[in-house]
Amino acid sequence: MNYHWDWLFFFQEADDGLKYYEWIISGMGWTVAVSLGALAVALLLGSVLGVMRTTPSRLLVAIGDTYVDVFRNVPLIVQLFMWFFVIPEFLPEKLGLWVKQELPYLVTAIIGLGLYTAARIAEQVKSGINALARGQRFAGLALGFTEWQTYRYVRLPMAYRIVLPAITSEAMNIFKNSAVTYAVGILELYFQYKQIIEKTSQVLEITIVVTAIYFGLAFAMNRVLAFIEKRSAVPGLITGGKGGH
């Protein structure tokens, strides 16, 4: 293989006056911002949807199931294009113009990725709630809690502990899925990766570096949530394949 390795090219100046390693740092910052913002949206909405799908209300269950079916079966990149280019056309004219011209792309990307991931989180939360003994609900009601209070104080805290390993996987995936947002103009890590290849043709070096960064971000999220899982474990509760003693 006749390839010219040059790791020092990262310190060369690009057309905009910045060095290529600064492009990488900037892209990583955008990736973290999009991923963490979308994760917050997904956890909040996914929890609500997961609860809705376990209530006695057929209407709430139907709404939750429909949401999950739609958002899990449409590719993420198509959903992003919908939020960026299609949905604004159906809004009132002034609001649509504001969304297209004034609303930061970052916000739209966070919402799009968050809504997509929420459908997956909803599945996990539903599974966690259904895995609990029915007696927990009845015990909460017997203590005078309302139905919603039993979710908030009894069922959800325990359900999260059960599904935390699965939620950890979704949190790691969100960093990888954020790469799709380059298609709608977010200057995240993958966008900078493509730009640097076009400018320098140093494919192997930049690919190695970007791969290591994505691995590092996902692994860091894994370690943070593993720490939370360990600190929040309930003795005797089986989570992640481990049983308490």
TrEMBL record:
InterPro entries: AA_ABC_transptr_permease_3TM (IPR010065), ArtM/GltK/GlnP/TcyL/YhdX-like (IPR043429), MetI-like (IPR000515), MetI-like_sf (IPR035906). The keyword Cell membrane applies. CDD domains: TM_PBP2. It is a multi-pass membrane protein. Coiled coil: none annotated. This is Glutamate/aspartate transport system permease protein. Keywords: Cell membrane, Membrane, Transmembrane, Transmembrane helix, Transport. GO terms for cellular component: ATP-binding cassette (ABC) transporter complex. The chain crosses the membrane at residues 20-49, 70-91, 103-122, 203-221.
